[in-house]
């Protein structure tokens, strides 16, 4: 096998046509030798990601419960049930709100941190490593740590109490502040990576352009807004998309802090999915899973397209 | 540097140092210091030093929190997953980057779909039931590999495409076989992206909770995050959260990954901030 490949590659590689680039890889029959390299990854991805993914398109429309071994097609019944009980639309609203809050906070905070730590040097290396630490903590553990900090008698209210004594607001006990707090924990957990991606983006901007803007009399803000921010496009695309789509799949932090409460204020789709699963309603849980997929596609694709177009213009 | 630039630089360091307090240092301190307090002190959730040091919180976690079993499960899943994902991922990346067959392009696109699309949990359970590995560590491991290969394929394929193929072609002409070229040329050049990607992967695999919750059943097969969740949930139903024990568990659960980080910290942070991962 090795011998054949070599002979074939040599035969194919020798009559190099003039002109650039002479880098056409082996073609035709010899190309089959690539398959042994691709097959393990392809088989595992198809078997344990794509197949379940495709099956979900069927299971979402079935009555599949833990109380019966029969899985029967039941049309859109799962969806009508979810809509009528009010679970679905509320969960979609909560999830999208959560994702938007997390995405905006993530990118504002991480880009600010990146600007502060942009220049390569010893001090900044230290800070970059320090601010990276929350990334190591599991989202679940991050949820526990921050629910302690946000407790009515916890350190945050303790610090606020220095200025207005007896402050005991339950951050996770009120709908709006709970949703914002949980999204914030998500931001905190991942900011370390996003910051480094932004630093890479900032350092990829040609220094001459920034310099030219300065010479033309642009102040720090104008240089940032008109030069750096425009040329940051690839890093921005990556960070916005990853933080938004990641937040659409939120689960761990919510489960560790509020479990969807108070009321249903933080019941994101994955929480609703888990509740259906725990209740034995596997078909309905699949329906919610399909909704998450559709949300990712319907919101993610235009977002990527928009940000990519912006990259070209910049 | 001009005077103004130097002042701005000093200001920046001060801002970063002050901000690090609430952002990193206080949460970490709260975690560490309350993990060695007795229950009554820890439930006050303050930042003071313990009046009574309770290091046996950790032994409670060891015994009641099933820590040793969970640690072995986490190691036994995370390390093989990482090895398979990095090896198979870079093998496929080489093939995808160099072959021009349409079928290969289709295969590439199928592989990287998992980068953006969310995995479907319920049908996964169904499939594992059919394969009779539902609830087992083997099933969870296979799903971890299948759902994470896409990222490595995506990153590494982009990396190989940017590499000129001249060296590989010369090696082929000199008689090197494909496996030899892969082992001696491709794998070493992929090292930077595999290191950064591998560390991010090991962090997310180590901390993975959603699939563990659905796919692993029984205390014997629980990984560390699942063990932490069950431990915290069990401890909270009786009275309020046992913050002392929950924090002790968090410390022990995070410890292995922090140790890994200490070893690769410099290269990881440097790699990421030089753009090892691109959009």
Characterization of this structure:
The complex is a heterodimer of chains A (314) and B (279). Chain A is mainly α. Chain A is built from 14 helices and two strands, in the order ααββαααααααααααα. The N terminus of chain A is likely disordered. Chain B is mainly alpha-helical and 279 residues long. Chain B has two domains: 57 residues; 208 residues, MetI-like fold, CATH 1.10.3720.10. Chain B has twelve helices and no strands. In chain B, α7 crosses α9 and α11 packs antiparallel against α12. The radius of gyration of chain B is 23 Å and the shape is flat. The two termini of chain B are 34 Å apart. Chains A and B meet through α1, α2, α5, α6 and α8 of A and α1, α4, α5, α6 and α7 of B. Chain A: InterPro entries: ABC_transporter_permease, MetI-like, MetI-like_sf. Chain A: Keywords: Cell membrane, Membrane, Transmembrane, Transmembrane helix, Transport. Chain A: One of its GO terms (biological process) is transmembrane transport. Chain A: It is a multi-pass membrane protein.
Number of strands of chain A: 2
How many helices of chain B does DSSP assign? 12
Q: Can you identify the CATH superfamily of chain A?
A: MetI-like
| Largest interface, C-beta within 8 A | A-B, 102 and 104 residues
By oligomeric state, this entry counts as: heterodimer
């Amino acid at each position: 096998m090795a011998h054949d490949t070599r002979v074939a590659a040599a035969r194919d590689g020798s009559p190099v046509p003039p002109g650039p680039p002479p880098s056409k890889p082996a073609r035709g029959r010899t190309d089959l030798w690539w398959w042994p390299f691709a097959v393990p990854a392809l088989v595992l991805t198809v078997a344990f990601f794509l197949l379940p993914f495709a099956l979900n398109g069927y299971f979402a429309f079935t009555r599949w419960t833990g109380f019966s071994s029969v899985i029967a097609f039941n049309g859109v019944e799962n969806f009508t049930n979810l809509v009528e009980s009010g679970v679905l639309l509320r969960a979609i609203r909560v999830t999208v709100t959560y994702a938007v809050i997390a995405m905006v906070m993530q990118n504002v905070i991480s880009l600010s941190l990146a600007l502060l730590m942009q220049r390569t040097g010893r001090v900044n290396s230290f800070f970059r490593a320090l601010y990276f630490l929350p990334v190591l903590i599991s989202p679940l553990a991050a949820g526990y740590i921050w629910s302690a900090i946000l407790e009515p008698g916890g350190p945050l209210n303790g610090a606020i109490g220095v200025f207005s004594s007896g402050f005991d607001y339950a951050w996770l006990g009120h709908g709006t502040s709970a949703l914002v707090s949980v999204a914030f924990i998500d931001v905190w957990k991942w900011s370390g990576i996003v910051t480094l991606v932004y630093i890479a983006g900032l350092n990829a901007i040609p220094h001459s352009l920034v310099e030219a803007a300065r010479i033309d009399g642009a102040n720090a803000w104008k240089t940032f807004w008109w030069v750096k921010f425009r040329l940051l496009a690839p890093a921005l695309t990556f960070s916005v998309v990853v933080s938004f789509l990641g937040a659409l799949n939120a689960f761990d932090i919510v489960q560790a802090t509020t479990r969807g409460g108070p009321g249903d204020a933080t019941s994101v789709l994955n929480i609703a999915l888990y509740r259906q699963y725990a209740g034995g309603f596997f078909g309905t849980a699949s329906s919610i899973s399909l909704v998450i997929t559709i949300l990712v596609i319907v919101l993610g694709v235009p977002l990527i397209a928009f940000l990519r177009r912006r990259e070209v213009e910049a | 540097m001009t005077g103004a630039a130097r002042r701005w630089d000093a200001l920046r360091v001060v801002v970063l140092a002050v901000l690090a307090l609430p952002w990193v240092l206080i949460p970490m301190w709260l975690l560490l210091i309350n993990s060695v307090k007795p229950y009554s002190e820890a439930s006050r959730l303050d930042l003071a030093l313990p009046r009574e040091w309770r290091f046996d919180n950790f032994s409670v976690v060891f015994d009641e929190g099933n820590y040793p079993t969970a640690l072995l499960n986490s190691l036994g899943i995370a390390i093989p997953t990482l090895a398979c994902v990095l090896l198979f991922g870079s093998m496929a990346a080489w093939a995808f980057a160099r072959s021009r067959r349409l079928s290969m392009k289709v295969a590439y696109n199928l592989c990287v779909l998992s980068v953006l699309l969310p995995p479907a949990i319920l049908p996964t359970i169904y499939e594992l039931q059919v394969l009779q590995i539902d609830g087992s560590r083997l099933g969870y491991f296979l799903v971890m590999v299948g759902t994470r290969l896409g990222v490595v394929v995506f990153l590494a394929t982009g990396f190989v495409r940017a590499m000129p193929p001249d060296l590989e072609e010369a090696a082929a002409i000199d008689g090197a076989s494909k496996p030899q070229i892969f082992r001696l040329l491709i794998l070493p050049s992929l090292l930077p992206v595999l290191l950064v990607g591998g560390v991010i992967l090991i962090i997310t695999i180590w901390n993975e909770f959603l699939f563990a919750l659905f796919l692993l059943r029984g205390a014997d097969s629980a990984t560390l995050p699942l063990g932490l969740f069950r431990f915290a949930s069990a401890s909270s139903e009786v009275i309020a959260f046992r913050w002392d024990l929950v924090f002790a568990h968090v410390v022990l659960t995070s410890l292995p990954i922090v140790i890994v980080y200490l070893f690769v910290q410099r290269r990881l942070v440097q790699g990421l901030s030089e753009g090892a991962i691109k959009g």
